[in-house]
Amino acid sequence: MKGSSLAVLIPAWNEEATIADVVSKIREVGLYDVIVINDASTDQTADRAAVAGARVLSLPVNLGAWGATQTGIRFALKKGYRQVITMDADGQHLSSAIPYLLAPIVAGEADTVIGSCTERGSHARKIAWRFFRGMTGLGIEDLTSGFRAYDLPAMKILASKEATLLEYQDIGVLLLLMHSGMRIQETKVPMLHRISGSSKIFSSWFKVAEYLLLNLILCASHFMKVKSHFMKVKSYWYVSKKGTL
Fold first, then answer.
1. Mean pLDDT computed over 19-44
2. Does 173 map to a domain?
3. Cβ atoms of 149 and 112 closer than 8 Å
């Protein structure tokens, strides 16, 4: 694979403690097109990323992890990249695992690959995963992993206006990809614990409640789409059968 066809995207908000090390380790494995989307950080995230060798896109306002990631995907499309890897800026994701995410895409077996590490999840998070898997029909164990690989068709879908309406980068993104016919795979990868800071989603009970509520709305929307499709198929079957009588 040509290096210029792949970009590594890292959304970052106030990650000055880890971002330089994350960028450096990605470049050490031969991936030099590292793009850090600085999500209106108030610390030295942008400067440290740039010194480490990343291209930095600085947002004027905080868009959240998904908004920053989508900005990176749109930029990658504009620059002609055909695959992207998304990674967290906190040091949890290992650059040595990137080839495992890319392999199914290179082999033409998947459009999206999720780097999965269920061992990192707390008991409460695993319950949430199980609940949303049942609600959505998504056969993904680690629904909240931000360590992902997307091919060109998936990138185009995620750069669309429809994807802009999403708040988080996990369930909503996966549902949109699934409804669009994208092939989604999951592969086990090792992950580290956060070096500093805390999860932006699970930082408080209010944030957890907000996350659950928004994803429940997404699940309800998913059910409405499935029901609408079922009713169309049923109506077509009824009309066709009536026509043969």
1. 97
2. yes
3. yes
Would you say residue 71 lies in a domain? yes
What's the angle, vertex CA 101, arms to CA 100 and CA 105, rounded to 5? 110
Give the whole-angstrom CA distance, residue 83 versus residue 138: 23
Residue among 89, 84, 124, 118 nearest 101 (CA): 84
For 176-212, the pLDDT digits (tens) are 899 899 999 999 999 997 666 555 555 555 555 665 6
**Residue written as tokens 């090390």?**
21
Q: Does residue 129 lie in a domain region?
A: yes
Structural domain count of the chain: 1
Measured at the CA of 160, the angle between CA 156 and CA 161, to 5 degrees, comes to 180
**What global pTM score does this model have?**
0.79
Closest CA to 169 of 65, 63, 35, 36: 65
Yes or no: say if 201 and 211 are a contact pair by the CB < 8 Å rule. yes
Domain assignment of residue 93, yes or no: yes
Residue 231 — very low, low, confident or very high, per pLDDT cuts 50/70/90?
very low
CATH number at residue 25: 3.90.550.10
pLDDT of 142 above 50: yes
